[in-house]
Amino acid sequence: MDTNSFLLRTLIADKLITERDVVRAQERPGDPLESLVNLGVISHRSLAITRAKVCEYPFVDLPLYEIEHKNSAILPRALAEKFQVFPLFVFEQTVTVAMLDPLNLQAIDQVRQIVKREVDPVVCDAQLLRGLIARAYSLGQSANAAAKASDSGTERDLTTGDEPIVAAAQQILMTALEMGASDIHINPDEEVLHLRYRVDGTLRPLQGPPKDMHAGIVQRLKVLAKLDLTQTRKPQDGKFRFSGNNTYVDIRLSTVPTIHGENVVMRLLRSASAVGNVKDLAMPEDMTGWFEELIRKPHGMFVVTGPTGSGKTTTLYTALAAVNAPNRNIMTIEDPVEIRLPLVRQIQVNHEVGLTFATALRSILRQDPNVVLVGEIRDEETARIAIQAALTGHLVLSTLHTNDALGSLPRLKAFGVPGYAINNGLLACVAQRLVKKVCQACAVPDEERGERIASLALTPEQAAMLRRGAGCPECGNLGTRGRVAVFEMLRITQRLRAMIENDRSISEVGQAAMIDGFRPMCHDGLRKALLGCIPLSELDSLKAEVETETHDAATNLEMRRAA
Fold it and tell me: Fewest Cβ atoms nearer than 10 Å: which of 194, 276, 340, 357?
């Protein structure tokens, strides 16, 4: 019996797959083990752990180790890719080599002859190993080639596809796509070039290219973004489109000069195909109904609030996608345009030519729009024109930078919008934050929060529903993977209009809003925690961030009611 057949039998015996799964996999062309993974029956990691057990070799979890990319120098790339092997750790007389099949004696013999050391095979996740090989040889060999070119004094062509700098820049961008990153940070220090990716709101450092490649990589990115290559002493902004893994992404590039060279941050912008429907926002059921009703109103203003990075743009684009139709003229004013939508006329703010939110808004109101999206209300003039548009038969969607939904009322008043205009023009305000989700691959009951659970007055049955992530390779041992939004919605009801007209305090308005269904953001957070979606620690962070004196008591009351 060959190794693969024995491995299949072991997987069945361990109840990781069934006989039916094997039949389905064998009906497909190629390796049945790979087919099992492609069918979603088993993960690469589980397959590798079982292979290690069968072959009696150690399993190495690659994300747990800092692997030196320079190890690629001792093994030709062609051999690494042919046999799917990579030297993880190099000692005096021994090399620990990651492999998919540690019983492949031909591969071990060839590696031994080249590295001139004893070979100690270990088993790794196939997908992670392929990614490591691609990154290491792109960055490591690019550095070697760049160094040789520098030593020889030859001029490097920054536009050639095979040029090492281009390969390194390509790999940096590809890694961002694979990780699902929202931002890429290339930060030069005196002797080190730091490479970090923002994933789920947290910066994660990865081993990057050497410092001597920094200038070349920056130049390559400037070429893509059509920036001035000769200017290194002032900030520059640009944009380009990158394709990889059968998809494409728009990337916004920002460079600023520092004492150690140009600092680069790239924002990866989602495509229109990534915009889901209203239900994908994961609002509470009643709020989803209100949201769908309000965005279909013929006129009025709908405001989304929250700090930078709280998902406001996603919510607004979801609203636009929901109402987008050939019988509606939709126009937007944005800074910058992050997602391109069909049928929607999108305008980019350009301060250099005087095209601001206010001036653009005046112009597009003469373009017969049904729906207008104003990227942000940030000054008195824009606020007045936006509310006037809402009063004269247009549906206006916009954002405000406030701490919560109630805070949008005094913010609009601070911009000079009178109470009667708020009463007649404003439909609702949504406030939101993004919180981290429990990694479902390593979710376990949260039994370590006894005091916090007691403070929420949760029943034993409710406490048993709480989850936290124990940490696993799929989440980088963080216990969280992905993010979800938590919301609160303040609808301007008849009850609230009377209070706004009488200039009542925000605290009083908040208490009245509770009667009409308003629930503070932490209410939605607790709901998602009780669904096992977010860890309780995220709820604590959220509560500390969004609570204000104006509705602190209301928040605590509603959290207890939810419990």
Answer: 340
